[in-house]
TrEMBL record:
Designated name of the protein: Cytochrome c-type biogenesis protein CcmH
InterPro entries: C-type_cytochrome_biogenesis, Cyt_c_biogenesis_CcmI, Ig_CycH, TPR-like_helical_dom_sf, TPR_CcmH_CycH, TPR_rpt
Compartments where located: Cell envelope
Native source species: Allopseudospirillum japonicum
GO cellular component, one term: cell envelope
TPR repeats: 165-198
One of the GO biological process terms: cytochrome complex assembly
Length: 420
């Protein structure tokens, strides 16, 4: 943490230099210009005095009061005095720099600004999360890789700071890793106290109670799952848990359906791979030949007359600035009537766009509900800012349709609308 403050102080000092140096230069230049103006006045006065004395000297010489030798001598003396005075003034044009009252005030304001910034950051900024982060790093180093010791230190950290959500989250994850499921569920309860009943937290607590209850969908587990799915029907952890339970009971088709829905909202590649492996295992137990991945052109042998819709997806130029390369993009084909479940779905990222994809029966959420089961569909593409298949305010989207599933020409989907 000390290193952070040193770095911030260095940056603040650099900013102060950029602020103070131009003003210092301006003040020096202003002083120089004032000195030059004063010198001009003095030079003009000296020249005027020189001309007056020279006129008097000329008059005395012409009147016969001075002989030529004295006249020339006194005139030379007047000229030398004028030149000497001008040279003396030039040496005074660059006075030594001294702090003026304005500059002292500038330094005072800068110091007060830095202190005020530090105080405001300490009160309203990210100081507390940074303290937690650096504290956690110190705990890891001091524990020497002993996970139980790390958990003990995390427990002490949340006792000392019970309103820090990040601490409860880390503690719950640690308990789950150690299979201390009841303690994990209680830690997640504290996290909900601070963060609210978000679907992800609800689903994680459902997982913890599921293992406490001997892998049974008890009422408390089912209640948590229902609450999570009410907010996000494809919530990955909740759907994953339902898939595990169905698989344990030998209901492999139901497990596949839950896991296929989970794929639409899973956030990380590792979990996505685990879900795909679970689907493949369930398909194998059902005697279903899982499609090769990736699918080669030679292996691609669709059934005769099976629908295939070719779709070009891109983002309108005026909306690209509102996206990030890692944002999730969903492309759906839905029936005009009936359940809203997609008949075909593909998950991409903004980095993949623009691209061209093919929607077919292999991308159905349920084998019985695919493109072949309807005559017309509505196509949609959406940039999901929160990663959820459910449309949320601020998402970007496009739609096209209705279109016949037998349509053979390229369909263009330009994402050019913002979900209100």
């Amino acid at each position: 943490m000390i290193a952070l403050w040193i770095g911030l102080a260095c940056l603040a000092g650099l900013a102060l230099v950029f602020l103070a140096w131009p003003l210092r230069t301006y003040l020096v230049l202003e002083r120089r210009l004032a000195a030059e103006a004063s010198e001009d006045q003095r030079v003009q006065a000296n020249v005027g005095l020189f001309k007056t004395k020279l006129a008097q000297l000329d008059a005395a010489y012409e009147g016969g009061d001075l002989d030529e030798e004295n006249y020339r001598s006194q005139r030379r003396e007047l000229e030398n005095n004028l030149l000497d005075d001008a040279g003396e003034q030039k040496t005074q044009l660059a006075p030594a720099f001294k702090f003026s009252q304005a500059q002292v005030r500038l330094l005072g304001i800068a110091a007060i600004s830095l202190l005020a910034s530090a105080a405001l950051y300490q009160k309203y900024g990210a100081a507390e999360p940074l303290n937690v982060y650096f504290g956690r790093q110190a705990v890891i180093e001091e524990s020497g890789g002993d996970f139980n010791q790390l958990v003990a230190r995390l427990e002490q950290a949340v006792r000392d700071n019970p309103d820090q959500a990040q601490g409860w989250y880390l503690l719950a994850r640690s308990y789950m890793s150690l299979q201390r499921f009841e303690q994990a569920a209680l830690a997640l309860e504290e996290l909900m106290r601070l963060e609210g009943r978000k679907p992800g937290i609800l689903a994680q607590q459902a997982q913890a109670w599921y293992f406490v209850d001997q892998r049974q969908l008890t009422p408390r587990v089912q209640t948590l799952i229902d609450e999570a799915l009410a907010q996000d029907v494809h919530q990955a952890a909740a759907r994953g848990l339902l898939g595990i339970h169905a698989f344990d009971q030998g209901r492999y088709q139901l497990a596949i359906e839950h896991w296929q829905k989970a794929l639409l909202s899973v956030q990380d590649q590792e979990n996505e791979q685990a879900i795909r492996e679970g689907i493949a295992e369930a398909q194998a137990r059902l005697g279903i030949q899982a499609p090769a991945e990736p699918q080669t052109e030679m292996a691609k042998t669709p059934a005769v007359n099976a629908p295939e819709l070719t779709v070009a997806v891109e983002i309108a130029a005026e909306l690209k600035a509102q996206t990030h390369p890692e944002d999730t993009v969903f492309v759906f084909a839905r029936a005009l009537e009936g359940p809203p479940m997609p008949l075909a779905a593909v998950k991409l990222t903004v980095a993949d766009l623009p691209t061209q994809i093919t929607l077919d029966n292999s991308q159905a959420m349920m084998p019985a509900r695919n493109l072949s089961s309807v005559q017309e569909v509505v196509l949609s593409a959406r940039v999901a800012k929160g990663g959820s298949p459910q449309a949320q305010s601020g998402d970007l989207q496009a739609s096209f349709g209705p279109v016949a599933v037998t349509h053979k020409e390229l369909i263009s989907l330009e994402i050019n609308q913002v979900v209100p």
